[in-house]
Specification:
Blueprint (H helix, E strand, L loop, with lengths): L5 H12 L1 H8 L12 H7 L5 E6 L5 H15 L4 E6 L2 H17 L1 H5 L11 E2 L5 E3 L5 E6 L12 E7 L6 H8 L2 E10 L9 H6 L5 E5 L9 H6 L2
Parallel strand pairs: 1-7, 1-8, 2-5, 2-6, 6-7
Antiparallel strand pairs: 3-4, 4-5
Helix pairs in contact: 1-2, 2-4, 4-5
């Protein structure tokens, strides 16, 4: 850093401050090409609201955004703590797969993982998946189950929920108690049409920033693809 010009230092600062610019620099698509975000994804990535909830169609890019935000946060924050929650382990598996892909594809990200006394990366897979980083940050992955028992005893600065429309009502109370004061809460989901749920009530709350992403925001979306997912 000492050999950088003021312009180079400013450029690095802009990248570290911006999830979308950071993702474009450090993350890769599955075919090895650099990550590029669609306009609606950039709007979400750069949104600074603390309470954000999504009503998203299929293939609209929510998993890409969720994993970008998670990795950017733990990479740029010392001692940061993140909980990724979902109704079932199957929902978490696709997120874990994407995060592992990025960690394995980027030497910088791979080097950021903490090492245990045996010289192996500090990645715990059972009973729940967990990744620890050299800067003290940690990502917890927890399925809600029926009552949210797996959330208890956790206290984090950032909560992400995947498929929040399907999270059991009894799990919401345990989940919300995990968030530290002034923490950030983001919920991504395809809506299920039910109105007597916590998820639906939050989409109607003036205290939450709402994003609505129909599937056709994906530039590759076609009517044929829509019929395949019906």
């Amino acid at each position: 850093m000492e050999d950088l010009t003021p312009e180079e230092t400013l450029k690095i600062g802009r990248i570290l401050d911006s999830p979308s610019l950071w993702g474009q620099k450090y993350l890769l698509n599955r075919d090895g090409s650099p990550r590029v975000y669609w306009p609606h994804q950039v709007e979400d990535l750069e949104c600074c609201e603390r309470n954000i909830i999504h009503l998203d169609g299929r293939d609209s890019g929510k998993t890409i955004n969720l994993t970008t935000l998670v990795l950017h946060y733990v990479f740029t924050n010392v001692g940061g703590s993140v909980l990724i929650a979902a109704p079932h382990q199957g929902h978490l598996d696709s997120i874990i797969e994407e995060i592992e892909h990025q960690l394995n594809s980027s030497p910088d990200l791979s080097a950021s993982i903490a090492i245990n006394p045996q010289g192996r990366p500090k990645i715990i897979r059972k009973p729940y998946y967990k990744i620890e980083f050299a800067n003290g940050s940690v990502i917890y992955f927890r399925p809600a189950g029926a009552y949210g028992d797996s959330f208890r005893s956790l206290h984090v600065e950032y909560i992400f929920v995947d498929e929040g429309a399907w999270l059991p009502e009894k799990a919401w109370r345990a989940l919300r108690q995990c968030l530290k004061a002034d923490g950030i809460f983001r919920i991504y989901s395809t809506p299920n049409g039910l109105r007597d749920t916590t998820y639906y009530r939050l989409t109607q709350s003036p205290n939450w920033k709402v994003f609505r992403w129909p599937s056709w925001l994906n530039p590759s979306w076609t009517d044929k693809r829509g019929k395949e997912l019906e």
